[in-house]
């Protein structure tokens, strides 16, 4: 017999209702609440609040709400506070009961502006310290990469800034002041003035760029540096390394990055800091046949000449200040008599030309400090760790789109997303099955109790003694 339609009748009292009992033991938020210390924020921001006036919302609750915003990939703070009363797991996580009044979205916005970036940097560092203490961070080998972030502004908000700059210059002249030198941006967004146009992989983006240092051992994010989208990658590499070493207190030994970071200036820095690079440097563009690229020419240091594959010499011609390089050029007649002239020389009115950077010896050093096998191994690891880190942030935490406006707020967003990714890795590491001890011929050997590890050590010939 079919049942009757279920008609909900509101009860005046609910007996035995407990959010604590309704939260599953394996719920991710239960693990996060147990593992992550949100209460530190109270002492961290206490001096920012007065002693009189209305009592504010607990800072620990506000930090949890901001955490949920990026953990659950909610599009805005307003949307978060609208969904909060409907989610029992969120209410439990923030220590609210079913009948309690939840904060307005403006409470979150005001607190974020009042706290500033220092509070969220402290939160990121607290999580990172837990990862280091758990043994998830090696710190000596890191992967550096960057990714574009779309600003919370459309490209059609870009306006020419000539009028604003000219008015400022006019006011300075009226006040008999020396006009200050200004870097004129062609177009600036009126919605988000800090956002800039940047191009990567052929795509132009109005927004920002996040540069990360990702540890090789388990992919923990150890540093994040946010810049406008028009800042070139090579300009930020040193800042990322310094930030990593400050956050982890571990000296970097090896850095892997793509060719965007491969400049002579960066190689000089790495050489001075005794850091081994695994970076493909930016090669000089050439229109000749690949068989006659620059690396096929041998440099004679004593005579200061290049020797081409057919034995002709390229002698020093002049110094090109625009690219900070020495120009070496072959004799035109000698090149024209060569059977490879059409393949080797791009311009038919001059001999073959080669640029030698002032810091060429550091570029050559960068290519020889690692074996080919080790270089391929690290570049494959970089793709998995660094690019995988950005892919995870985009797929699960809305990394590719800014929820906030302004460079300072973007730095907060990237710090929180990086901290959340580290929290997830930390929970995953602590959720693994406990290790057991196996013994054979009196030799003790610990390992994780998984089928893969059992097969690796040949468990049939071992005896499992006990868990520890």
Q: What CATH architecture label of the largest domain applies?
A: 2-Layer Sandwich
CATH topology (fold) name of the largest domain? Nucleotidyltransferase, domain 5
Number of individual domains: 4
Tally of helical segments? 17
Report the CATH C-level class of the largest domain.
Alpha Beta
Poorly predicted regions? 435-468
Mean pLDDT: 80
Structural class: alpha+beta
CATH superfamily membership of the largest domain? Ribonuclease H-like superfamily/Ribonuclease H
Q: Given the C-alpha coordinates, what overall shape results? A: elongated
- The amount of beta strand, in percent, is 15-25%
Helix content: 25-40%
Please state the CA-atom Rg, rounded to the nearest Å.
30 Å
Q: Note the main sheet.
A: 6 strands, mixed
N-C termini distance: 55 Å
Q: How many distinct beta strands?
A: 16
Description:
The protein is of the alpha+beta class and 468 residues long. The protein folds into four domains: 22-115, no CATH class; 135-153 and 209-281 and 368-418, 2-Layer Sandwich (Nucleotidyltransferase, domain 5), CATH 3.30.420; 290-351, no CATH class; 435-467, no CATH class. The chain has 17 helices and 16 strands. The chain has helices at residues 19-22, 28-35, 40-45, 59-71, 77-83, 88-93, 105-115, 117-134, 162-174, 237-248, 264-272, 332-336, 341-344, 360-368, 372-397, 407-430, 451-457; strands spanning 141-150, 158-160, 187-189, 196-200, 203-215, 221-228, 254-257, 276-279, 298-300, 305-307, 313-320, 325-330, 353-357, 435-440, 443-448, 463-467. Strands 1, 4, 5, 6, 7 and 8 form a six-stranded mixed beta sheet that branches. Strands 9-10-11-12-13 form a five-stranded antiparallel beta sheet. The protein has a three-stranded antiparallel beta sheet with strand order 15-14-16, with no helix packed on it. α5 packs across α7.
